[in-house]
């Protein structure tokens, strides 16, 4: 199963607010998210050599939102590595899902073959 253009979330529809003094240092507030997305996304964003700093924190254990901060070098707007990180993370997740589904099909076929 391949991801289609319809499967790709639009960044505009994600529950994200951005705050910052300039475009290359921005804090995104992601609602209804936790360490699962925060740490994975931080890892993907930090792979970009134009990112000087990337980190996140959970504001309070009883709140399900994270503050996700990106600071870039030069004139690259922080939203670009944020968007790229989300897309790269979706690609990794899709690869894991495809690999898992393929392995499950092979396992089931092997078991059916053994039962006959």
Automatic annotation (TrEMBL):
Which residue range or ranges hold the DNA-directed RNA polymerase RBP11-like dimerisation domain?
25-98
According to the UniProt record, one GO cellular component term is:
RNA polymerase III complex
Query: Which top-level group of life is the source organism from?
Result: Eukaryota
The GO annotation for biological process reads: transcription by RNA polymerase III; transcription elongation by RNA polymerase I
Q: Name one Pfam family in it.
A: RNA_pol_L_2
List the subcellular locations. Nucleus
Q: Which InterPro entries match?
A: RBP11-like, RBP11-like_dimer, RNA_pol_Rpb11_13-16kDa_CS, RNAP_AC19, Rpo11-like
SUPFAM superfamilies in alphabetical order:
RBP11-like subunits of RNA polymerase (SSF55257)
Q: Which UniProt keywords apply?
A: DNA-directed RNA polymerase, Nucleus, Transcription
On whether Nucleus is a keyword of this UniProt record, the answer is: yes
Primary location: nucleus
Q: Which GO terms describe its molecular function?
A: DNA binding; DNA-directed RNA polymerase activity; protein dimerization activity
Work out whether the entry's keyword set contains Transcription.
yes
Q: Which family does it belong to?
A: Belongs to the archaeal Rpo11/eukaryotic RPB11/RPC19 RNA polymerase subunit family.
Q: What is this protein called?
A: DNA-directed RNA polymerases I and III subunit RPAC2
Source organism: Limosa lapponica baueri
